[in-house]
Design goal:
It is elongated and about 75 Å long. With 342 residues, it is mainly alpha-helical. The protein contains 17 helices and two strands. Its EC number is 2.5.1.60.
Length: 342
């Protein structure tokens, strides 16, 4: 987890700790053998599931055992088999599985297996008749994400799960999630996941349509373009990040995404004005942080665009300087310079 202190070497290898690890390894080996044997035998009784749960709490990355639990749970959660109409049993089984997963996530909040299994459980849980119109389950899942993202705001597994939950949650407006990303970005500008989620939400919040589009149907029915005033607000937000952490690339990548949308709803004159404003911003940042990689790269790209501020000569100078300052990516900068002559 980001920000978590490591134990000292002495603490990691103390005699007491080594003995604890030996006992734990012995228990783990015994449990693994017992669980895998039951898996081979296809034993899905409660004793087997309890043993598997105990082992998963020790190591939640054993996807074979999660799959074994799926085989047991799937007919129950889908209301199939001998107990096909026992919805109360299905709800109870889903809640127990979510409790197990929560315990595992407390130990390893970045477990791929846990998050994927939780998605699977929640998807089937919300499909049950009694859950179809009950938002409390999804509200609870959003609350879990709040807690985990408070502990580590850059846990991209949790961000991905949050997007999944909100896609199921009919009562969760994208505008409220947009506010949430702004809150997380303000806490830490170096948050790729929050910037990425924000880019998806902005398009969702600004869907537009026309009668002709609706008649055509399909994905074309909704145009996801960003109005000028929205872009202006986003450029102002990302500018704060530049001055706070000019060497952090997450905000610069978001800025490049914004620049790519400038021409969608603006006239040529308005595009020139916006690109000119961004050129001025880059010049300002470079005055404060001379030689900084990201504002130089951004300025070179802006000056390469076909606007009234186009200056390929200056762009080449910037790329040349970057090739010297950042030799690992010198080939990229040379290719960018060559592209200006095509």
């Amino acid at each position: 987890m980001h920000g978590q202190k490591r134990l000292t070497k002495e603490a990691r290898y103390s005699q007491q700790r080594l003995e604890q690890r030996k006992r734990k390894a012995k228990l783990y080996a015994e449990l693994s053998a017992a669980c895998l044997e039951r898996r081979r035998e296809g034993r899905r009784d409660e004793e087997s599931l309890a043993l598997i749960a105990k082992l998963l709490e020790m190591n939640c990355e054993l996807y074979t055992l999660w799959n074994f639990r799926k085989e047991h749970l799937e007919p129950i959660l889908k209301l199939e088999g001998d107990d096909g109409n026992d919805e109360a049993r299905a709800v109870e089984a889903a809640e127990k599985e979510l409790a197990l997963l929560e315990a595992c996530l407390q130990r390893n909040p970045k477990s791929y297996c846990c998050w994927q299994h939780r998605k699977w459980v929640v998807e089937l849980h919300t499909a049950l008749p009694s859950s179809a119109h009950d938002a409390s389950l999804l509200d609870r899942e959003v609350g879990l994400c709040d807690l985990l993202l408070t502990a580590d705001e850059r846990n991209f597994h949790c961000w991905s799960y949050r997007r999944f939950v909100c896609s199921l949650h009919r009562g969760k407006e994208p505008e409220s999630e947009l506010d949430y990303t702004a809150e997380k970005i303000a806490q830490n500008f170096s948050n790729y996941s929050a910037w990425h989620y924000r880019s998806a939400l902005l398009k969702e919040c600004n869907k537009t349509t026309t009668l002709r589009d609706l008649e055509g149907g399909g994905d074309v029915a909704y145009k996801r373009v960003l109005p000028p005033h929205v872009l202006d607000e986003e450029f102002a937000l990302v500018k704060e990040a530049f001055y706070t952490e000019p060497e952090d690339q997450s905000a610069w990548l978001y800025h490049a995404w914004l620049v790519g949308h400038v021409a969608e709803t603006r006239t040529t004159e308005e595009v020139d004005e916006r690109i000119g404003a961004e050129v001025a911003t880059m010049e300002e940042v470079l005055e404060v942080e001379p030689g900084s990689k990201w504002p130089q790269l951004c300025l070179a790209r802006l000056l390469s665009m076909p606007t009234s501020r186009e200056d390929k000569g200056r762009a080449k100078e910037l790329y040349s300087a970057l090739a010297g300052e950042d030799p690992k990516r010198a080939g990229y900068y040379r290719d960018a310079m060559a592209a200006l002559d095509r």
